[in-house]
């Protein structure tokens, strides 16, 4: 018989933890920046490449394909010469915007404290 009692400590094994699986999808810095680029609606590939500083075309293409495979992004091709390729968030991708906005806000409010903690740590343990 299966117990309905919740364990005292949650299972955080990578193989079964849903949270770790989601983090695997969104934890890449390019993924977050690409999602932010589509925050206001569809965007052409070239415009996205210009807006995301430092991303290579290869990395942009790989990350967009991964997000498309995960059901977070959809690609729309308009036949023309050259073809117009636009990307937008799917409803599933749009559902990520609110938690990502909250994380971005947390970073704006707290990253200075993280940097100060690093400096303090480095000063404390620099002799080790």
UniProtKB/TrEMBL annotation:
Pfam families: HxlR (PF01638)
Classification via Gene3D superfamilies: Winged helix-like DNA-binding domain superfamily/Winged helix DNA-binding domain
Keywords from the named record: DNA-binding, Transcription, Transcription regulation
HTH hxlR-type domain boundaries: 17-115
Gene Ontology molecular function: any one: DNA binding
Protein name per Swiss-Prot or TrEMBL: Transcriptional regulator
Naturally occurring in which organism (per UniProt): Paenibacillus rigui
């Amino acid at each position: 018989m299966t117990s309905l009692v919740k364990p005292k400590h949650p299972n955080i094994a990578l193989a079964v933890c849903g949270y770790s699986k989601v983090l695997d999808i969104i934890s890449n810095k390019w993924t977050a920046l690409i999602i932010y680029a589509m925050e206001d609606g569809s965007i052409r590939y070239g415009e996205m490449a210009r807006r995301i500083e430092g991303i290579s075309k290869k990395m942009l293409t790989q990350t967009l394909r991964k997000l498309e495979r995960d059901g977070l992004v959809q690609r729309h091709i308009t036949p023309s010469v050259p073809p117009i390729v636009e990307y937008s968030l799917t409803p599933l991708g749009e559902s990520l915007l609110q938690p990502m906005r909250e994380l971005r806000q947390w970073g704006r409010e707290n990253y200075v404290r993280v940097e100060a903690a690093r400096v303090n740590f480095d000063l404390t343990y620099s002799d080790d």
